[in-house]
Automatic annotation (TrEMBL):
Residues 38-383 form the NADH:flavin oxidoreductase/NADH oxidase N-terminal domain. It comes from the Bacteria. Gene3D superfamilies: Aldolase class I (3.20.20.70). SUPFAM superfamilies: FMN-linked oxidoreductases. Pfam families: Oxidored_FMN. Keywords: Flavoprotein, FMN, NADP, Oxidoreductase. This is NADH:flavin oxidoreductase. It comes from Actinacidiphila oryziradicis.
Length: 396
């Protein structure tokens, strides 16, 4: 339940409390350092602090193969204090999984060799890293690489805007193939030395398309009531859980909103959300990464908990919050958008101190400033770089 667990310590932070970072500050900056510096355990993994790098698609992997620049990109942020990196979405081994040959895949000897180098680079600087496993489903446009002849597939062939016959409804063979692809990718991640995996079940992509009644119109065991709509997500989670070691962390990312439909909801009430989370927990999900556009907004009427707070309360599992952390303007879709200035972390710290959620994922702020975590964890908030689309023309 919310409120369980210890609160952060009070008083001045000593340099020894931050390991590699020299801390000489007190007051408001010390509060952020103390609260965010606490380690956290996920299965066999100990995350050294509460800062997570959110997955953000970049399309910097020609042919789907992450190169040395990708390894350097993640290693730089790990070296600067990010506790856990969740990579950009990576396509599983299914012809309809992707929409670009510049987005990395998590299959094939060449791509997996590239990912092994990424994991090694992050570990060499003391970081932790998980790949996000992804199938875009009906978000894929016909003719898109890397397999232009592959059809777009989803629960019912409906696009996110409700257009029927935009693709093909998945058969049982299709479902089995995708489930197997996620499990194979997770097994490869553990074999390559990654610290866990995240399943992308949010934002209107394939897994989420089954969860949402707006795109799932099936009349079989995978559609209809909420339990049936959750079946595909639970079967993927169970297959992944079986494919990896019992203490290898499996995260599940979920959202209410969809790309282009920010009012969509997979759960209208806490009871409905509890049913979804319960099925996924029983299937083997170790933690929930609850994606919102603004972390400070309550998810349901009558309570100020955000989506991550509800996920933790209802499932009893750890939760990660995300949504415009450290910026004064909300997430607008994608990594681009208007300039956003640095904002106070006090509202976030209030929630983290009362254990509403456990970890904090940071997106655009870490794109704009690779040393964001180091500056936060050493009290140098006056040095933070604001987010601007112009600064992202060369992501480093």
């Amino acid at each position: 339940m919310v409120g369980q667990g210890g609160r952060c310590r009070s008083g001045t932070v000593r340099a020894a409390d931050r390991g590699d970072f020299t801390v000489t500050t007190s007051g408001p900056a010390a509060r952020a350092i103390q609260t965010l510096s606490r380690p956290f355990s996920l299965g066999a993994l100990t995350v050294p602090n509460r800062i997570v790098m959110a997955p953000m698609t970049r399309q910097f992997s020609p042919g789907g193969v992450p190169g040395e620049d990708v390894a350097a990109y993640y290693a730089r942020r790990a070296a600067a204090g990010v506790g856990l990196i969740i990579t950009e979405g990576t396509f599983v081994d299914h012809p309809s999984a992707g929409y670009s040959d510049a987005v990395p895949r998590f299959h094939g000897d060449d791509a997996l060799a590239g990912w092994a180098r990424v994991a090694e680079a992050v570990h060499q600087v003391g970081g932790k890293i998980m790949p996000q496993l992804w199938h875009v489903g009906m978000s894929r446009k016909a003719g898109s690489p890397p397999f232009p002849d592959a059809p777009s597939v989803g629960p019912s062939g409906y696009a996110l805007d409700g257009t029927p016959d935009a693709g093909r409804a998945m058969t049982q063979d299709d479902l089995d193939d995708v489930i197997r692809a996620f499990a194979d990718a997770a097994a490869a991640a553990e074999r390559l030395g990654f610290d866990g995996v995240e399943l992308h079940g949010a934002h209107g992509y394939l897994i989420d398309q089954f969860l949402w009644s707006g795109t799932n119109h099936r009349a079989d065991a995978y559609g209809g009531d909420l339990a049936s709509r959750t079946r595909f997500a639970a079967e993927i989670t169970a297959a992944v859980r079986k494919a990896v070691s019992p203490d290898f962390p499996v995260l599940f990312r979920l959202s209410q909103w969809k790309a282009g439909n920010y009012d969509a909801r997979i759960a209208e009430t806490p009871d409905e959300l509890e049913a979804i989370l319960g099925s996924l927990s029983e299937a083997g999900a170790d933690a929930f990464h609850a994606s919102t556009r603004r972390y400070w907004l309550p998810e349901f009427d009558g309570c100020d908990l955000n989506l991550a707070g509800w996920a933790k309360k209802l499932s009893g599992k750890p939760a990660i919050t995300v949504g415009s952390v450290g910026l004064d303007k909300q997430f607008l879709g994608g990594s681009n958008g208007e300039q956003a200035a640095v904002s106070s972390l006090d509202p976030l710290l209030d929630r983290l101190e009362r254990d509403e959620f456990d970890l904090v994922a940071v997106g655009r702020a870490l794109l704009a400033d690779p040393t964001w975590a180091a500056k936060i964890l050493s009290g140098r908030t006056d040095e933070l770089t604001p987010f601007s689309p112009e600064a992202l023309r060369i992501l480093h």
